[in-house]
């Protein structure tokens, strides 16, 4: 049942190219337009919406951060982001001009469901992004987008996350066109790049031995820091969560620009820093941040686009991802982070698929 893989997690990491393809293809018609069958919001209804709130837990919430970025960029609607367990208790300002998007792999997470109900009660329209057909969250939402990742068994979410990213990109592009704020050219260019991602993801998986040997040397850290800017900051939160939940190493992700506002105090000789530097417009800033932590003795693993070799001068090890648009790098850059977390956990002898204290679906509060 694990298809020859040692763990479900590794199998599911390898299923990502297919999961991406399966989530995109059924949504495209013969004119290369995005058709979202279960999203019923009309152009007029969308035009009335003046704010979107994305609400979820854990990995799904981190996918939501990228959703915020994509919607603001492609559909030009302001987006707030919140953790479901915070949203539901803070009496958020929500009205009938608000669209709330809940993201949940299982579609059963208690806090996410409660947040959705809270939003509906306040008059919001609710859209669900979920991997389970007929789940409670899908039944209670007005609009639904199903991620076709297939069943996810490992507690640590991997393929569900990447399909959530794809969902958010498709929703954002679709909204941009519906609202008339996104040019057809840009839409088509992003779509073409989205379709090219499965093959690029395969390439990263093909080179996974690099991450395994890196993990074999870096598994004994007390603490790991993930840094990035823009989209990379969002992806590093997911990378950090992956590491801590399956390897039990303390890890945290912080926006690289925040380093000098406190966290840099913790960087010392040998501290592992994973630095994401995939964004062209932020590349130089990231190089300076890498130099800053190197100067304090950090061991830096960088993740960069394969065209940006300059970074080899600053980082100790560089993991390359294939070239893609800056807006879409998240789908690729998360894969080395998943593999790094996985191999570190294996090297530490952890029960990767069933980490202690964690359940696959959190239906209690
Ligand atoms: C981490 C992980 C959790 C879930 C979270 C939400 O790998 O799996 O953080 O993402 O519990 O679960 P869903 O998406 O089912 O609502």
Describe it for me?
Residues 42-181, 210-355 form the SIS domain. This protein has 365 residues and is an alpha/beta fold. The protein has helices spanning 8-14, 16-24, 43-48, 58-74, 84-87, 110-121, 136-140, 159-179, 184-206, 209-217, 231-247, 283-295, 329-347; strands at 51-56, 79-83, 98-104, 125-130, 143-146, 223-228, 250-255, 272-277, 299-305, 317-321. The strands form two sheets. It has a five-stranded parallel beta sheet, sandwiched between helices. A five-stranded parallel beta sheet has the order 7-6-8-9-10, sandwiched between helices. Helix 2 (16-24) runs parallel beside helix 8 and helix 4 packs antiparallel against helix 11. It is globular, with a radius of gyration of 20 Å. Bound molecules: fructose -6-phosphate (F6R).
Order of helices and strands: HHHEHEHEHEHEHHHEHEEHEEH
Taking all residues together, what is the mean pLDDT? 97
- Main sheet: strand order: 2-1-3-4-5
Number of DSSP helices? 13
Short description:
This protein is of the alpha/beta class and 365 residues long. It contains 13 helices and ten strands. Fructose -6-phosphate is lined by residues 57-60, 104-106, 109, 112, 156-157, 241, 245, 361-362.
């Amino acid at each position: 049942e694990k298809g020859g893989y040692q763990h479900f997690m590794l199998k599911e990491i390898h299923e990502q190219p297919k999961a991406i393809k399966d989530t995109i293809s059924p949504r495209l018609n013969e004119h290369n337009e995005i058709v979202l069958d279960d999203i019923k919001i009309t152009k007029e209804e969308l035009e009335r919406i003046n704010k979107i709130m994305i609400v979820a837990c854990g990995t799904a919430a981190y996918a939501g951060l990228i959703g915020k970025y994509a919607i603001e960029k492609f559909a030009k609607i302001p987006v707030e982001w919140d953790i479901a367990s915070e949203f539901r208790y803070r009496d958020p300002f929500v009205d009938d001009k608000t669209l709330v998007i809940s993201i949940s792999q299982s579609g059963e997470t208690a806090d996410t469901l409660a947040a959705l109900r809270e939003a509906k009660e306040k008059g919001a329209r609710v859209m669900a992004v979920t991997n389970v057909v007929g789940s409670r969250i899908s039944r209670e939402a007005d609009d639904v987008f199903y991620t076709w990742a297939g069943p996810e068994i490992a507690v640590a979410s991997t393929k569900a996350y990447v399909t959530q990213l794809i969902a958010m990109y498709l929703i954002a592009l679709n909204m941009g066109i519906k609202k008339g704020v996104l040019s057809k050219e840009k839409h088509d260019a992003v779509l073409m790049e989205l379709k090219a991602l499965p093959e690029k993801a395969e390439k990263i998986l093909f080179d996974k031995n690099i991450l395994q040997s890196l993990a074999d040397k870096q598994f004994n850290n007390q603490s790991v820091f993930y840094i990035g800017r823009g989209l990379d900051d969002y992806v590093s939160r997911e990378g950090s969560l992956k590491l801590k939940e399956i390897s039990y190493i303390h890890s945290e992700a912080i926006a690289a620009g925040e380093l000098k506002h406190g966290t840099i105090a913790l960087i010392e000789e040998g501290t592992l820093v994973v630095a994401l530097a995939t964004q062209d417009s932020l590349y130089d800033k990231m190089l300076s941040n890498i130099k800053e932590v190197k100067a304090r003795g950090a061991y830096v693993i960088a993740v960069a686009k394969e065209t940006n070799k300059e970074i080899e001068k600053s980082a100790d090890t560089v993991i390359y991802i294939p070239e893609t648009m800056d807006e879409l790098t998240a789908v690729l850059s998360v894969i080395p982070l998943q593999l790094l977390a996985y191999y570190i956990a294996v090297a530490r002898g952890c029960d990767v698929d069933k980490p202690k204290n964690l359940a696959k679906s959190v239906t209690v509060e």
